Amino acid sequence: MNRTLSSALASLPANLLGSKTSEFDSDSPWHDRNLGRAEDRSAPEHLFTPVGYEAGYRYPLIVWLHSHASSEFELPNVMSQLSLQNHTAIAPRGTERISRDEEVFTWRQTPTHIDLAAQRVEQCIGIAKQIRNVHSDRIFLAGFGTGGTMALRLGLRHPEWFAGVISLNGPMPTGFSPLGRVNHSRGLPILMGSGLESETYDLDAVYQDVRLLQTAGLKLDVRHFNAGDELRTPMLKEINSWIMNFVCSGSATAQAI
User: Fold this and answer.
1) Per the database record, which ranges form the Phospholipase/carboxylesterase/thioesterase domain (predicted)?
2) What pTM did the predictor assign?
3) What is the second-level CATH architecture of the domain 3-249?
4) How far is CA 54 from CA 58, 139, 191, 217, in A?
5) Which of 46, 178, 180, 250 is least buried, going by the fewest C-beta atoms within 10 A?
6) What ranges do the domains of the chain cover?
7) Which residues, other chains included, contact 224 with Cβ-Cβ below 8 Å and sequence gap of 6+?
8) pLDDT tens across 23-60, in order?
């Protein structure tokens, strides 16, 4: 690490970097199934199969973390706007139910929920590989809102799992050392997108997060969209373009899990 970067990292808040050792150990298009009961730390997921699926082709995999007060069943709408042919995708259910009347969920940023989210993502990757032909070096983690924040958290925690991480309108997580493995994360491509009129993630907050990640030496692309706090088609089209750029260049290098 060069002296400039070492000095910059020394100025970052301790709760972001953590200690030297991380506190964590390191043929319809739609198909859904139940992984098991909640007490087994498993949860339902939703799997997307691309239109015209060819079993002999290894597809990029998008693991989608849904938005706040939603569920894994937002995946069909997401993929219908992102791409119906280029990727297979799977969405785990959020870690906490937030309504007694509706099955809607969110992603909480506590150690227990972070661990549970990581386990669900890992399970989903395994399921997708069992059911569909997935390219192990082209696994991308993406999410919107609280799902985007959790995507950043898990991508920085387990960079070896992913070829890239995408967060749309999802602020950088705070607390519990999100940059605890920063030395291992610098080769991980990150795409951050935000709505110019967002009330929950305004431009000042976006720029603060961008400065933080750049100071940490992370590989970051930033996009702004004419949107507020809603998930818009141009955001999803940008995800498709960003991923396909890696696929076509052959630069996606996630390790198999």
Assistant:
1) 109-243
2) 0.84
3) 3-Layer(aba) Sandwich (3.40)
4) 9, 18, 28, 39
5) 250
6) 3-249
7) 193, 194, 195, 196, 203, 206
8) 223 343 544 443 322 323 457 999 999 999 999 999 99
